[in-house]
Specification:
166 residues; 6 helices
């Protein structure tokens, strides 16, 4: 168990440092990433749009689709409560960007407010994956579109927040 956890922590560090190594290479991309951390349309917009579209789509499966959406939302909130409980009960895990030993280059205007929140599990990622799974249960194709949004929440959670640019 110890080796697995060590491997996971090292993979976390390596992924963050790899992402951070691209900082400053393309100013336009840096600007886009800084803006993306504040855009709810990127974070949950795709998942929300898919859920609304599936809810409003008429057809013989409409009742079953709506029941699945309600179950997905309820499951998401239950998973969110579980994630918060785990974050409070499990040993505190420093967010990778807050670890001085990594040599992470903090973006300009960094919001340090999340330094006191445990890195695992991510509330937003838990909810995004629960909703994406509900979408996947209704439509495999649309679910495959929704799952990357959950992955984006993991990246967004690992990376520091910068202030929105005017």
């Amino acid at each position: 168990m110890e080796n697995w956890l060590s491997w996971l922590l090292n993979a976390d560090d390596a992924a963050l440092l790899w992402l951070n190594s691209w900082r400053g290479q393309w100013p336009g991309f840096d600007l886009a990433m800084a803006q993306a951390t504040h855009m709810l349309t990127i974070k949950f917009g795709v998942v929300a749009a898919l859920l609304i579209w599936l809810w409003l789509t008429p057809g013989e499966q409409q009742l079953k689709t709506r029941q699945t959406i309600v179950k997905a939302v309820a499951t998401g909130f239950a998973a969110l409560l579980l994630a918060r409980a785990l974050a409070l009960l499990l040993p505190f895990r420093v967010r990778p960007f807050a670890r001085a030993d990594l040599g992470f280059v903090v973006p300009d205007g960094f919001d340090a407010g999340l330094r006191t929140w445990s890195a695992f599990p991510s509330d937003h990622a838990v909810m995004a994956f629960a909703l994406a799974t509900g979408i996947w249960c209704i439509s495999r194709r649309l679910g495959m579109l929704a799952y990357p949004c959950g992955s984006m929440k993991i990246i967004d959670t690992a990376c520091p927040k910068t202030p929105p640019l005017a």
